[in-house]
């Protein structure tokens, strides 16, 4: 692989490069930016932002190397900012396959070095290249997608924004541990597609259910490695810069809440915002919203609790016994964060020994067990682990 510096085009606009234009707590003042004279030191970077203007598999497009999100993002204030770098714009290769390979390699390097790529796209099918970075690292990954539909496509379809998910699911070897869809809208998704995901024990949260119990997606995000956010899931009135936008969907506050949950997740190692089409924006409204989503992601990241593998000694233990007298579910509630986990039993291949995995859950799961019912989250994880 070439040096990272050779794979990106630096940011050259004076309004970004000149630190004197920003106050001491604005992101533009503290960010380590790739310019003509300087390449960021990635050794200590925690978050690494870059944009990818690759739209061949999408109806959206962008002819601009100047990502307008920067103008809004750099003006936002962050106290005690983590170490953030901005690599500018990824250079595209003559062949699309080569560009996707570069995306895969860049993400692999960053993730392997403990930095979180924050990607501004580009078509949603870039998610396939990001997923392959986990494959190359031989890391099983949970993919969570915020989208108004499932992007499964047909088996014979080429890789595109509407079909990339089927390519991820069918990829061999598979390193997809789990998949979640958040915010899908029923009139964009067939019952056949819903049943297909359910048969694979994947999770999906319909927009209406999300609005009613928003806090229940936090456990999904806590177990997520890569959050892929298609901005077509946001109402057109909040994010018009997308050819696939719809009158219904998430509002701006919803989108920012999801981004904050993602930042809070100790497990999450990549965050992507896709299908941004600056040519369709109105008064930079979408750029402003996406920059604020990144701000919320940063705020969540700042207060991570280091509970990737929670110490049960620092938790309150709750054991729920069922009426049959033979079964129970053990829950743990963190004294530090108030978040919940539950124990799910499994047996390793060719072993009779029963082991347990801690799965992120919510207080609602505990209440369901207290009512004598097995939480659906427990059942799905038990089936998958078995």
Task: Report a brief summary of the structure.
The protein has about 375 residues and is of the alpha/beta class. About 30% of the residues lie in helices and about 20% in strands. The chain has 2 domains: about 5-300, 3-Layer(aba) Sandwich (Arginase, Chain A); about 310-385, no CATH class.
Keywords:
four-stranded antiparallel sheet, 13 helices, alpha/beta, Arginase, Chain A, 2 domains, ten-stranded mixed sheet, 14 strands
Would you write up a description of this structure?
This protein has 386 residues and is an alpha/beta fold. It has two domains: 4-302, Arginase, Chain A (3-Layer(aba) Sandwich); 312-385, no CATH class. It is built from 13 helices and 14 strands. It has helices at 14-17, 27-30, 69-73, 96-112, 126-136, 164-170, 191-199, 207-212, 218-222, 252-264, 285-302, 363-370, 376-385; strands at residues 8-9, 32-33, 47-52, 84-90, 116-121, 141-146, 176-184, 203-206, 226-230, 270-274, 315-321, 328-334, 340-347, 354-361. Strands 1, 2, 3, 4, 5, 6, 7, 8, 9 and 10 form a ten-stranded mixed sheet that branches. Strands 11-12-13-14 form a four-stranded antiparallel sheet. Helix 4 (96-112) crosses helix 5, helix 5 (126-136) packs parallel to helix 6 and helix 10 packs parallel to helix 11 (285-302). The longest helix is centred in the C-terminal third of the chain and has 18 residues, at 285-302. The mean pLDDT is 93.
């Amino acid at each position: 692989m070439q040096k990272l510096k050779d794979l990106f085009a630096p940011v050259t606009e004076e309004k970004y490069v000149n630190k004197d234009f920003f106050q001491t707590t604005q992101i533009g003042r503290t960010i380590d930016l790739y310019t003509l004279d300087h390449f960021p030191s990635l050794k200590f970077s925690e978050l690494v932002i870059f944009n990818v203007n690759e739209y061949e598999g999408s109806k959206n497009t962008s002819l601009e190397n100047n990502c307008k999100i920067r103008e809004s993002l750099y003006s936002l204030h962050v106290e005690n900012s983590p170490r953030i770098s901005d690599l500018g714009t990824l250079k595209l290769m003559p062949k699309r396959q080569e560009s996707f390979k570069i995306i895969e390699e860049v993400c692999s390097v960053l993730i392997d070095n403990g930095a979180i790529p924050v990607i501004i796209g580009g078509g949603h099918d870039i998610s396939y290249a990001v997923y392959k970075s986990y494959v190359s690292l031989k890391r099983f990954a949970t993919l969570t997608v915020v989208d108004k539909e499932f992007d499964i496509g047909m088996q014979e379809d080429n890789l595109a924004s509407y079909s990339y998910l089927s390519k991820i699911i069918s990829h061999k070897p598979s390193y997809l541990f789990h998949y979640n869809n958040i915010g899908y809208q029923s009139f964009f998704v067939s019952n056949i597609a819903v049943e297909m995901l359910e048969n694979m024990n994947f999770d999906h949260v319909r927009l209406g259910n999300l609005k009613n119990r928003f806090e229940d997606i936090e456990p999904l995000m806590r177990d997520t490695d890569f959050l892929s956010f298609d901005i077509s899931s946001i109402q057109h009135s909040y994010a018009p810069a997308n050819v696939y936008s719809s009158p219904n969907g998430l509002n701006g506050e919803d989108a920012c809440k999801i981004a904050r949950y993602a930042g809070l997740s100790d497990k999450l190692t990549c965050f992507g915002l896709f299908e941004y089409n600056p040519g369709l924006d109105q008064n930079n409204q979408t750029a402003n919203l996406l920059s604020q989503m990144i701000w919320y992601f940063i705020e969540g990241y700042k207060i991570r609790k280091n509970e990737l593998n929670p110490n049960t000694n620092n938790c309150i233990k709750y054991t729920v016994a069922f009426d049959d007298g033979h079964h129970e579910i053990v829950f743990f509630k963190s004294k530090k964060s108030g978040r919940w986990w539950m124990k799910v039993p499994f047996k390793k291949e060719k072993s009779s020994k029963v082991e347990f995995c801690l799965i992120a859950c919510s207080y609602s799961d505990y209440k369901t067990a207290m009512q004598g019912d097995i939480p659906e989250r427990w059942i799905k994880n038990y089936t998958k682990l078995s």
